[in-house]
Specification:
By secondary structure, the chain is of the alpha+beta class. The chain has 8 helices and 8 strands.
Length: 227
């Protein structure tokens, strides 16, 4: 972090009614128009209420080592709509996995989370991010080495930046970690989804050696910490 409406035709009133009361036709027309306006206003209110209920989702982008692991973690969080593995934080457009692995593109393996802020807040996602990896190891997570495995938060707006800084300061003040946090905090400029075979890795490879050795223990550990 220190690294820093079609108009309807009105029907005429019966002749006998108009003869008896010359204003009856006009009154009926005005009444019909008022009813239509009221129905239209009610429709607008209903649509506005519906739109309010369907609140827009928001996005968060984090990197904490191999994106297969981070993806598996956040896919299990209530309120998270989708998690996409990809690359961000570099200077080469449209990088491939092989390019990123060289460490020369500047990209980190990251995940982009689409979430419902009514169900889960950005602050809650930050809390999960901190415990889902080790933010004190520079360019390394477990057996993975290189700048592409660095700890990084890519904020989408000033509110996310402020929340991340506040969270970092709180963790530092309480000395939650024995070593200093080295997480990079930068604005998101471009996110590149990773190749299709990287997406939903754990869901598609349960029982694989990598899943059993790296992902399953992480999920168990996280479950205990979030209790």
């Amino acid at each position: 972090m220190v690294q820093t409406s079609k108009k309807t035709k009105q029907l005429s009133a019966p002749a006998s009614k108009s003869d008896e009361n010359p204003t009856a036709g006009a009154d009926q027309k005005n009444g019909s128009d008022s009813e239509k306006k009221e129905d239209k206003d009610q429709g607008k209110t209903k649509n506005t209420t519906s739109a309010a209920k369907e609140k827009k989702t928001e996005k968060a982008t984090f990197g904490g080592g191999c994106f297969w692991c981070m993806e598996a973690v956040f896919e299990r969080i209530p309120g998270v709509k989708s998690v996409v593995s990809g690359y961000a934080g570099g200077h080469i457009p449209n990088p491939t996995y092989e390019m990123v692995c060289t460490g020369l593109t500047g990209h980190a393996e990251v995940i982009q989370i689409e979430y419902d802020p009514v169900v889960v807040s950005y602050e809650k996602l930050l809390n999960i991010f901190w415990v889902a990896h080790d933010p004190t190891t520079l360019n390394r997570q477990e057996d993975d080495f290189g700048p592409n495995y660095r700890s990084i938060i890519l904020y989408h707006n000033d509110e996310q930046k402020e929340a991340a800084e506040k969270s970092y300061k709180d963790l530092t003040r309480r000395r939650v970690f024995r070593s200093p946090i080295v997480t990079e905090l930068v604005p998101l400029t471009e996110f590149y989804p990773a190749e299709a075979y990287h997406q939903d890795y754990y869901c598609n490879h349960r029982g694989s050696a990598y899943s059993d050795i790296h992902i399953v223990p992480k999920l168990r550990k996280l479950k205990q910490k979030l209790k």
